[in-house]
Amino acid sequence: QILTGLGTIAMASLAPKALSAAGKVSLDRTSVLLVIDVQNCFLPGGSLAVKDGDKVVPVINGIAKKFADVVMTQDWHTPGHISFASSHSGKKPFETLEVKYGKQVLWPDHCVQGTDGAALSKDLAIPHTELILRKGFNKDVDSYSAFTEADGKTTTGLAAYLKARKLQRVFIAGLATDFCVAWSALDARKAGFDVYVIEDACRGIDTQGSLAKAWADMNKAGVKRIQSGDLAA
Ligand code: VGL
Ligand code: ZN
Protein backbone atom coordinates (compact mmCIF):
# COMPACT_ATOMS: atom_id res chain seq x y z
CA GLN A 1 0.00 0.00 0.00
CA ILE A 2 1.03 3.59 -0.54
CA LEU A 3 0.21 6.32 1.98
CA THR A 4 -0.56 9.71 0.53
CA GLY A 5 -1.98 12.93 1.88
CA LEU A 6 -5.32 11.83 0.55
CA GLY A 7 -5.30 8.49 2.28
CA THR A 8 -4.43 5.00 1.19
CA ILE A 9 -4.23 3.73 -2.36
CA ALA A 10 -4.37 -0.02 -2.72
CA MET A 11 -1.43 -1.35 -4.70
CA ALA A 12 -3.83 -3.30 -6.84
CA SER A 13 -4.95 -0.07 -8.45
CA LEU A 14 -1.41 0.51 -9.70
CA ALA A 15 -1.10 -2.90 -11.34
CA PRO A 16 -1.77 -3.00 -15.07
CA LYS A 17 -5.54 -2.94 -15.22
CA ALA A 18 -5.66 -5.56 -17.95
CA LEU A 19 -3.94 -8.30 -16.00
CA SER A 20 -6.23 -10.54 -14.00
CA ALA A 21 -5.06 -12.62 -11.08
CA ALA A 22 -4.11 -15.46 -13.41
CA GLY A 23 -1.83 -13.11 -15.35
CA LYS A 24 -4.25 -13.08 -18.23
CA VAL A 25 -5.37 -10.02 -20.15
CA SER A 26 -9.10 -9.68 -19.66
CA LEU A 27 -11.24 -8.08 -22.31
CA ASP A 28 -14.07 -5.66 -21.70
CA ARG A 29 -16.63 -3.64 -23.63
CA THR A 30 -13.98 -1.11 -24.65
CA SER A 31 -11.78 -3.75 -26.30
CA VAL A 32 -11.52 -4.05 -30.08
CA LEU A 33 -9.55 -6.44 -32.27
CA LEU A 34 -7.89 -4.67 -35.20
CA VAL A 35 -6.89 -7.16 -37.91
CA ILE A 36 -4.35 -5.65 -40.27
CA ASP A 37 -4.05 -6.54 -43.98
CA VAL A 38 -4.64 -10.30 -44.03
CA GLN A 39 -4.83 -10.17 -47.82
CA ASN A 40 -3.77 -12.56 -50.56
CA CYS A 41 -0.79 -10.45 -51.68
CA PHE A 42 0.77 -10.87 -48.23
CA LEU A 43 0.12 -14.61 -48.01
CA PRO A 44 2.27 -17.40 -49.50
CA GLY A 45 2.12 -17.14 -53.30
CA GLY A 46 1.26 -13.44 -53.13
CA SER A 47 3.32 -10.66 -54.71
CA LEU A 48 4.59 -9.38 -51.35
CA ALA A 49 4.33 -12.64 -49.44
CA VAL A 50 5.18 -12.47 -45.74
CA LYS A 51 6.94 -15.62 -44.57
CA ASP A 52 4.39 -17.86 -42.81
CA GLY A 53 1.79 -15.14 -43.25
CA ASP A 54 -0.93 -17.78 -43.53
CA LYS A 55 -0.11 -19.04 -40.03
CA VAL A 56 -1.80 -16.01 -38.51
CA VAL A 57 -5.22 -16.89 -39.93
CA PRO A 58 -6.25 -19.70 -37.53
CA VAL A 59 -4.82 -17.76 -34.58
CA ILE A 60 -6.82 -14.66 -35.53
CA ASN A 61 -9.99 -16.67 -36.16
CA GLY A 62 -9.64 -18.15 -32.68
CA ILE A 63 -9.06 -14.93 -30.75
CA ALA A 64 -11.70 -13.02 -32.73
CA LYS A 65 -14.37 -15.10 -30.98
CA LYS A 66 -13.41 -13.35 -27.74
CA PHE A 67 -14.06 -9.88 -29.13
CA ALA A 68 -17.49 -8.33 -29.55
CA ASP A 69 -15.88 -5.70 -31.77
CA VAL A 70 -13.60 -6.52 -34.70
CA VAL A 71 -12.27 -4.09 -37.31
CA MET A 72 -10.15 -5.11 -40.31
CA THR A 73 -7.99 -3.14 -42.68
CA GLN A 74 -7.26 -3.68 -46.34
CA ASP A 75 -4.23 -2.21 -48.10
CA TRP A 76 -5.88 -0.72 -51.19
CA HIS A 77 -3.56 0.87 -53.73
CA THR A 78 -4.18 2.48 -57.09
CA PRO A 79 -2.38 1.10 -60.12
CA GLY A 80 0.94 3.00 -60.39
CA HIS A 81 0.95 3.71 -56.65
CA ILE A 82 3.88 5.73 -55.26
CA SER A 83 4.93 2.78 -53.07
CA PHE A 84 5.47 0.47 -56.06
CA ALA A 85 9.05 0.14 -57.33
CA SER A 86 7.56 -0.26 -60.81
CA SER A 87 6.29 3.34 -60.62
CA HIS A 88 9.85 4.71 -60.48
CA SER A 89 12.26 4.09 -63.33
CA GLY A 90 15.47 2.33 -62.32
CA LYS A 91 14.10 1.35 -58.90
CA LYS A 92 13.81 -2.17 -57.56
CA PRO A 93 11.64 -3.58 -54.78
CA PHE A 94 13.00 -3.06 -51.23
CA GLU A 95 15.06 -0.05 -52.30
CA THR A 96 14.04 3.28 -50.81
CA LEU A 97 13.17 6.62 -52.33
CA GLU A 98 12.98 10.10 -50.84
CA VAL A 99 9.46 11.41 -51.47
CA LYS A 100 7.60 14.51 -50.26
CA TYR A 101 6.74 13.01 -46.88
CA GLY A 102 10.06 11.28 -46.24
CA LYS A 103 11.68 7.96 -46.98
CA GLN A 104 9.47 5.50 -48.81
CA VAL A 105 10.34 1.80 -49.06
CA LEU A 106 9.52 0.58 -52.55
CA TRP A 107 7.57 -2.64 -52.89
CA PRO A 108 6.53 -5.06 -55.57
CA ASP A 109 3.10 -4.13 -56.95
CA HIS A 110 0.59 -5.34 -54.36
CA CYS A 111 -2.99 -4.91 -53.17
CA VAL A 112 -4.21 -3.12 -56.27
CA GLN A 113 -7.82 -2.02 -55.80
CA GLY A 114 -10.34 -4.64 -56.84
CA THR A 115 -7.81 -7.38 -57.67
CA ASP A 116 -7.77 -10.86 -56.20
CA GLY A 117 -4.45 -10.04 -54.53
CA ALA A 118 -6.15 -7.26 -52.58
CA ALA A 119 -8.94 -9.54 -51.35
CA LEU A 120 -9.00 -10.59 -47.71
CA SER A 121 -7.96 -14.20 -47.10
CA LYS A 122 -10.89 -16.50 -47.81
CA ASP A 123 -9.87 -18.47 -44.70
CA LEU A 124 -10.67 -15.62 -42.33
CA ALA A 125 -13.83 -16.64 -40.51
CA ILE A 126 -14.93 -13.56 -38.58
CA PRO A 127 -18.48 -12.80 -39.69
CA HIS A 128 -19.01 -10.31 -36.87
CA THR A 129 -16.38 -7.93 -38.31
CA GLU A 130 -18.12 -4.56 -38.10
CA LEU A 131 -15.86 -2.36 -40.23
CA ILE A 132 -13.41 -3.01 -43.06
CA LEU A 133 -11.26 0.06 -43.52
CA ARG A 134 -9.28 0.59 -46.71
CA LYS A 135 -6.08 2.58 -46.69
CA GLY A 136 -3.32 3.61 -49.07
CA PHE A 137 -5.84 4.55 -51.76
CA ASN A 138 -4.27 7.94 -52.46
CA LYS A 139 -1.90 7.44 -55.38
CA ASP A 140 0.77 9.81 -54.05
CA VAL A 141 0.73 8.84 -50.37
CA ASP A 142 1.29 5.43 -48.80
CA SER A 143 -0.46 4.40 -45.61
CA TYR A 144 1.00 1.58 -43.55
CA SER A 145 -0.96 2.87 -40.60
CA ALA A 146 -4.66 2.24 -40.15
CA PHE A 147 -4.91 5.67 -38.51
CA THR A 148 -2.77 8.20 -40.38
CA GLU A 149 -1.34 8.21 -43.90
CA ALA A 150 2.41 8.35 -44.46
CA ASP A 151 2.33 12.15 -44.84
CA GLY A 152 1.83 12.14 -41.06
CA LYS A 153 -1.33 14.25 -41.23
CA THR A 154 -4.09 12.78 -43.39
CA THR A 155 -6.41 10.78 -41.14
CA THR A 156 -8.22 7.62 -42.16
CA GLY A 157 -10.97 8.42 -39.67
CA LEU A 158 -10.32 5.27 -37.62
CA ALA A 159 -9.43 7.05 -34.36
CA ALA A 160 -12.66 9.05 -34.53
CA TYR A 161 -14.65 5.89 -35.27
CA LEU A 162 -13.19 4.00 -32.32
CA LYS A 163 -13.70 6.97 -30.00
CA ALA A 164 -17.30 7.38 -31.12
CA ARG A 165 -17.85 3.68 -30.44
CA LYS A 166 -16.12 4.02 -27.02
CA LEU A 167 -13.48 1.46 -27.99
CA GLN A 168 -10.35 2.42 -26.06
CA ARG A 169 -8.29 -0.77 -25.87
CA VAL A 170 -6.96 -1.75 -29.27
CA PHE A 171 -5.61 -5.29 -29.76
CA ILE A 172 -3.69 -5.62 -33.02
CA ALA A 173 -3.02 -8.71 -35.14
CA GLY A 174 -2.13 -9.35 -38.78
CA LEU A 175 0.49 -8.46 -41.36
CA ALA A 176 3.10 -7.26 -41.37
CA THR A 177 4.45 -6.85 -37.84
CA ASP A 178 7.19 -4.43 -38.85
CA PHE A 179 5.14 -2.27 -41.22
CA CYS A 180 1.38 -1.96 -41.07
CA VAL A 181 1.00 -3.52 -37.62
CA ALA A 182 3.76 -1.44 -36.03
CA TRP A 183 2.76 1.83 -37.68
CA SER A 184 -0.85 1.27 -36.66
CA ALA A 185 0.18 0.48 -33.09
CA LEU A 186 2.38 3.59 -32.83
CA ASP A 187 -0.33 5.85 -34.25
CA ALA A 188 -2.93 4.31 -31.96
CA ARG A 189 -0.71 5.22 -29.00
CA LYS A 190 -0.33 8.78 -30.38
CA ALA A 191 -4.11 9.01 -30.57
CA GLY A 192 -4.37 8.02 -26.89
CA PHE A 193 -5.48 4.39 -27.11
CA ASP A 194 -4.26 1.52 -24.93
CA VAL A 195 -2.50 -0.77 -27.39
CA TYR A 196 -1.64 -4.46 -27.35
CA VAL A 197 0.11 -6.27 -30.20
CA ILE A 198 -0.58 -10.00 -30.22
CA GLU A 199 2.79 -11.28 -31.40
CA ASP A 200 1.87 -14.81 -32.48
CA ALA A 201 -1.08 -13.43 -34.43
CA CYS A 202 1.35 -11.38 -36.56
CA ARG A 203 4.23 -12.10 -38.95
CA GLY A 204 6.90 -9.68 -40.19
CA ILE A 205 8.66 -8.88 -43.46
CA ASP A 206 11.99 -8.07 -41.75
CA THR A 207 13.91 -6.10 -44.34
CA GLN A 208 17.06 -4.19 -43.25
CA GLY A 209 16.49 -4.74 -39.55
CA SER A 210 12.88 -3.54 -39.67
CA LEU A 211 11.44 -6.16 -37.30
CA ALA A 212 13.77 -5.48 -34.37
CA LYS A 213 13.38 -1.74 -34.87
CA ALA A 214 9.59 -2.04 -34.92
CA TRP A 215 9.51 -3.88 -31.58
CA ALA A 216 11.94 -1.37 -30.05
CA ASP A 217 9.82 1.56 -31.22
CA MET A 218 6.60 -0.07 -30.02
CA ASN A 219 8.11 -0.89 -26.64
CA LYS A 220 9.29 2.70 -26.22
CA ALA A 221 5.83 4.00 -27.09
CA GLY A 222 4.15 1.85 -24.44
CA VAL A 223 2.67 -0.75 -26.76
CA LYS A 224 2.13 -3.98 -24.83
CA ARG A 225 3.52 -7.13 -26.46
CA ILE A 226 1.36 -10.14 -25.67
CA GLN A 227 0.64 -13.65 -27.01
CA SER A 228 -2.75 -14.98 -28.04
CA GLY A 229 -2.62 -17.33 -25.04
CA ASP A 230 -2.46 -14.33 -22.69
CA LEU A 231 -6.06 -13.40 -23.50
CA ALA A 232 -8.51 -14.50 -20.83
CA ALA A 233 -11.24 -16.87 -22.00
C1 VGL B 1 2.40 -3.55 -45.90
C2 VGL B 1 4.27 -3.08 -47.12
C3 VGL B 1 3.52 -2.41 -48.05
C4 VGL B 1 1.81 -4.19 -44.70
C5 VGL B 1 1.62 -2.88 -46.83
O1 VGL B 1 0.61 -4.55 -44.71
O2 VGL B 1 2.56 -4.36 -43.71
N1 VGL B 1 3.72 -3.64 -46.06
N2 VGL B 1 2.20 -2.32 -47.89
ZN1 ZN C 1 1.01 -1.42 -49.37
From TrEMBL:
Enzyme group, top EC level?
A: hydrolase
The pathway where this protein functions is: Cofactor biosynthesis; nicotinate biosynthesis; nicotinate from nicotinamide: step 1/1
Entries under InterPro entries matching the protein: Isochorismatase-like_dom, Isochorismatase-like_sf, Isochorismatase_Nicotinamidase
Q: What Gene Ontology molecular-function terms does this entry list?
A: metal ion binding; nicotinamidase activity
Taxonomically, the superkingdom here is: Bacteria
Q: Known EC number(s)? A: 3.5.1.19
KW Zinc (keyword) present:
no
Write out the GO biological process terms: pyridine nucleotide biosynthetic process
Keyword Hydrolase in record: yes
Occurrences of domain Isochorismatase-like (ranges): 31-224
Keywords attached to this entry:
Hydrolase, Metal-binding, Pyridine nucleotide biosynthesis
NCBIfam families from the entry? PRK11609.1
Membership in a protein family:
Belongs to the isochorismatase family.
Q: Specify the protein name.
A: Nicotinamidase
